[in-house]
Prior knowledge:
Strand content: 15-25%
Radius of gyration: 18 Å
Number of domains: 3
Number of helices: 9
CATH class of the largest domain: Alpha Beta
Number of strands: 8
Shape: globular
Mean pLDDT: 89
Structural class: alpha+beta
Amino acid sequence: MSGHSKWATTKRQKAVTDAKRSAIFTKVANLITIAAKEKGGDPATNFALRIAIEKGKEANMPKDNIERAIKRGTGELGGAVIEELYYEGIGPLRSQFIVKCLTDNKNRTASEIRHIFSKHGCSMGTVAWNFSQRGVVRLTSDAVGDRNWDEFELELADIGAEDVVQEDEGMTAYTKIDDLQKVKQWLDQANIAVDSAGIEYVAKETQEVDDEEMPSLEKFVEELDDNDSVNDYYHNISNF
């Protein structure tokens, strides 16, 4: 199985959620707006919107904020147009990064992302060749509970999981994009809490870095997390 678990990344982003709630509300609102803009404002028929709304609820985002974001996406409310943009580049230690941004000012955002890369001695460049888009579902060990891991893995495979990786933190299931909704719905119906679910860029070939080199990566992703336009990022470091 190639790719990386991203558990550490998720933990960092959740820590940022607690420390900078208003900034997270803005990021999630933009995610909801984009989802509603693309496939409508009904979460019953728009899986991406339902996932975005769940993220808002996890962050304790007020219901009014969620509803405004949906209406903004469907055109019921005015305001600047939100765009989804991706930037690729070589990060610290020759790592590879794809940065997902949601912004109402692409020129400003492009300048800010270039500045972050440059500040850390990195450069923009094409790396998407080493990534593929896949559905990714993460379950904590507590969510899996006392289920037999091998049997549970087989059940997930029957539903549509292509790869299932057991890790210290829990389990990560990788699916085809079209099968993500089916796997998520099956878990919901089984009352198995999902830690995260969505479409991600997963690295085909990964690299490891030494512990003493980690600070350079941590400082880099901290700046990405702090940027209001950065909604997510994906990399090829297997132990980060």
